[in-house]
């Protein structure tokens, strides 16, 4: 049966996700909290395998071979009642903390793989909700999990987990390039005055709903990042260089990271990574 | 740019979809009409390419090389305002009219590919809504389109297009086998007394929500098909043979067709087709 059911131990693939613009939507209920906004899921992502502990000396979580602690992953395992038994091994194509949704991917991938490994019998929506709550409670993300569960080019119309949030999407596929110069703290940005974010984010969402194309998503994101003043010098210079070369690029929320359509970064002379928009949302690997 | 943007002319892939059980939910508004129920999307599906007409002698639609008329496809093209210009070329892994959602796949694939070809700038939800409406109005399907847009193993909690319907899913991947003996008329079944369908369908949905696994989906579907009396002799015999061999199978709604998990049909001696659950919902091919 090994090749017919999920692999044993089960592995989940979760696409990376870069947000172009967003409006934070806090709520006392973490299932209703989240963000409006839009972004792009990536064929570069995170593979998360969950197996049963062989000894108590096993680290609970490793990412690319290094043992670490990630509160959202631990919260998900506790929510499934398997925190004492599960060992999580993750491999990422993308760096942590630079705006690619790696933390959300770890939480969601852990939920999918642990559910399969320990026969928890939770529905897909329940697992997405568990991971979304854990991310919001940890303060590590506001909208990556629901976007990563959908795949494609998600538009977050209303915040929150399944049953609360509402999603749409840009119906396309495209080559995406990206380059990262470092991290920015999501917590620091959200601790400041968020009214300008909401105003600029909602204006960007209105533009995209009016014209739901990838070019409009990038243009609205560029305007958003200019208005909210989060661009570092390196990000500003890079986005302008891509634009000057005739390409389309914007800043990733939140990282010192730039994403571009097609060969936008390469054509402007940058040594960028390349992947595509990811047709499939988070799923168990065959 | 050919390899970076959607292929030109654009091609959409739409997974096949077999429904295991359902409750029809008619409504005067075709966006609210549909069904509750559950099923499985398939890596076997339909590829739909849309190009501009070269001459008025071009057939509007071909399926596997044969020219034919399909009202839902024509309605979708009219909804996008391109009925006079679009030519649709479809290739299917699955037979038409036997419960695999080929008609829904044609409508949804046409919406995705025509939107890309003619820069219609519709959102993903708008395109799914257009295809769902067209299917409901033509009487060819009640829930395939929204399930095919989602992918995976969709549970239809509430009927209707995006914004009205609600979906969940079984979080798994699996090998699926199927065998078809012929067609059954959806219209004939829905023209009869549908109260027993609703009663049996809602009981099956309650069981699956209680325990959202593929085994439960197949068991609930088997009980549904027995209760509603739609099994033909050949279907009944096949499902019983798979069960006797230790496998899990049920009837496809609506076709004289049986689907099974893993190698259920092969192990019972049938010459079945095989594929897998499809992680991705309907999407443009790269």
Automatic annotation (TrEMBL), chains A, B:
Gene3D superfamilies, alphabetized: 3.30.230.10
Signal sequence range: none
InterPro entries reported for this sequence: GHMP_kinase_N_dom, PoK, Ribosomal_Su5_D2-typ_SF, Ribsml_uS5_D2-typ_fold_subgr
Q: Which reaction does it catalyse?
A: (R)-pantoate + ATP = (R)-4-phosphopantoate + ADP + H(+)
Q: What class of enzyme is it?
A: transferase
Q: Which EC number(s) are documented for this chain?
A: 2.7.1.169
Q: What does this protein do?
A: Phosphorylates (R)-pantoate to form (R)-4-phosphopantoate in the CoA biosynthesis pathway.
What's a single GO MF annotation on this record?
A: kinase activity
The record's keywords, sorted A to Z, are: ATP-binding, Coenzyme A biosynthesis, Kinase, Nucleotide-binding, Transferase
HAMAP family, alphabetized: Pantoate_kinase
UniProt protein name: Pantoate kinase
Positions of the UniProt region annotated as Disordered: 1-38
Family per similarity comment: Belongs to the GHMP kinase family. PoK subfamily.
> What processes in GO biological process is this protein linked to?
coenzyme A biosynthetic process
Instruction: Give the organism the record lists.
Output: Haloplanus vescus
Q: Where is the GHMP kinase N-terminal domain?
A: 78-152
Pathway-wise, it operates in: Cofactor biosynthesis; coenzyme A biosynthesis
